[in-house]
Amino acid sequence: MKNQKDRIIIFDTTLRDGEQSPGASLNMDEKLTIARQLAKLGVDVIEAGFPYASPGDFEAVQKIAEVVGTEVGPTICGLARATKKDIEAAAAAVKPAAKPRIHTFIATSDIHLEYKLKKTRAEVVATAEEMVAYAKSFVEDVEFSPEDAGRSDPEFLYEVLTRAIAAGATTVNIPDTVGYTVPSEFGALIRGIKENVPNIDQAIISVHGHNDLGLAVANFLEAVKNGARQLECTINGIGERAGNAALEELVMGLYVRRKYYNPFFGREPESQEPLTNIDTRQLYKTSRLVSNLTGMLVQPNKAIVGANAFAHESGIHQDGVLKHKLTYEIMDAQSIGFNDNQIVLGKLSGRHAFSSRLQELGFELSEGELNKAFVKFKEVADKKKEITDWDLESIVNDEIQQPPELFRLELVQVSCGSSSRPTATVTLRNPQGEELTDAAIGTGPIDAIYEAINRVTNMPNQLIEFSVQSVTAGIDALGEVTIRLKHGDRIFSGHAANTDIIVASAYAYVNALNRLYAALQKEKEEGRKVLAQA
Ligand code: KIV
Ligand code: ZN
């Protein structure tokens, strides 16, 4: 294998740190779908979850290890605090992977030691050393993180890292846990580690950072110049609080500016050898998938994958781009797979054409899934003459990647207008198979539908976000509705697409309620288990 220090290792933590975004929780099938797409994207490591955190997390990491962690697939990593129980759970979960990794961490900043861990520095070093060695007894590939490294005393960090490497850590990850550092400082921290940790050559230096000040990507790129060779990031930058460093921004930064970064890898500036293993043409698709499944919308002006990232509005820019693309474009939309969105299918297209185009787009559907998606395609094609690649993606994401339908929307009917009170009637099939109908009035048609659905489902919640986006331009475009609702202190998202946005709104709401219902059922189930064990 080529020396890992000659290029960047992309460590994706969308399924672990990304899933810590409020409301971004994913079910097992959704995690598996994202993991498969991450493998296609070419990430080197997938941090699939925190196995000790819950049985659901454990199962998801284990399943991803089994299905995606093949010999040719990425390394599958499980997170563990520096405790034996956490490490044992992570070891068992990643075991089916061909390349398993355990990532263990303990905080090193004085603030965390004093207020959170209530441990002395000597105790932290001893625990780090002991737990890295314990993780090493299960797997060869062990990553160690001194949490809140960005606010830790560098001298203490050098000592902890030296001992962790001596105990067997093969990657040492430097987290800016609270997104506090600025690029020059973070770069200097990495340089200090390279210069002062005597055994640093035996490990890869990794970085992890949050975006509280909007500096995560800039910090990472500075770290790369100073010797970091693994970047921990998430798709669309989702994650705890303001999120993590965005994978697509890092990858494209290193790609578009390779001439600038190449010398830091000992290469000629003109070298065309890629700095990462990422297939950049999969970036846009991965971004849409993660956004649809987590309900975390991508802002239109988001770098690389935002809807406006390649749109030129001002006349001067449009004129320049028409004369020569390079006048105002530093990268080609095709390079991230933001293709021209050509019209590919229509009402008369058959199952074969439909299935071949999905294959070309990289979807691997089972026979049952394909049948379901084809029925939806026909429905859409009846209303919308021309079906584009983006429509197809939306249809598949909507039809296939949904949580198991517990409540099923059978009918929705609304009456509204300037001189009538919005009224909705809905019929739903409940998880017991009964058909229930109710009606309600509201401030608008969607409010009336949601009120009527609430009367049937009886799961109190507060709608905190509602958004409609059009998949393509045109009056007959598919509308995608994404909603987030709150139940207690938990947030659930829902997503649906339809040519009728009122109908899409109803489906999106039922979709979110089904996630809430599944979570409540799971809690009940786990409560019962605890009682049975007591
Ligand atoms: O932000 C952080 O410090 C983390 C660690 C577990 C690496 O997520
Ligand atoms: Zn983090």
Describe the structure.
- The protein is α/β, with parallel strands linked by helices and 534 residues long.
- The protein has an eight-stranded parallel β-barrel with strand order 1-2-3-4-5-6-7-8, surrounded by eight helices. Strands 11-12-13 form a three-stranded antiparallel beta sheet. It has a three-stranded antiparallel beta sheet with strand order 14-15-16.
- A hairpin with an 8-residue loop joins strand 14 and strand 15.
- Helix 1 packs antiparallel against helix 11 and helix 7 runs parallel beside helix 8.
- The longest helix is centred in the last third of the chain and has 33 residues.
- The radius of gyration is 25 Å and the shape is globular.
- The protein starts with 8 loop residues before the first strand and ends with a helix.
- Bound molecules: 3-methyl-2-oxobutanoic acid and zinc ion (ZN).
- The site of zinc ion has 6 residues, from loops.
- 3-methyl-2-oxobutanoic acid binds next to strand 5.
| SS strand fraction | 15-25%
**Rg calculated over all Cα atoms:** 25 Å
Structural class by secondary-structure content: alpha/beta
- Oligomer state equals single chain
By DSSP, the count of extended strands is: 16
How many alpha or pi helices? 17
Overall pLDDT metric? 91
Unreliable stretches (pLDDT < 50, length at least 5) are: none
Relative helix content: 40-55%
In terms of topology, how is this protein built?
Blueprint: E1 9-12, H1 28-41, E2 45-49, H2 55-67, E3 75-81, H3 84-94, E4 100-107, H4 110-117, H5 121-136, E5 141-147, H6 154-166, E6 171-176, H7 183-196, E7 204-209, H8 216-225, E8 230-233, H9 247-256, H10 258-261, H11 283-294, H12 315-323, E9 343-346, H13 351-360, H14 367-383, E10 386-388, H15 389-400, E11 408-417, E12 420-429, E13 435-441, H16 445-457, E14 462-470, E15 479-487, E16 490-498, H17 501-533
Helix pairs in contact: 1-2, 1-11, 2-3, 5-6, 6-7, 7-8, 14-15, 16-17
Bound molecules: 3-methyl-2-oxobutanoic acid (KIV) and zinc ion.
Residues 17, 175, 177, 208, 210, 240 line the site of zinc ion (ZN).
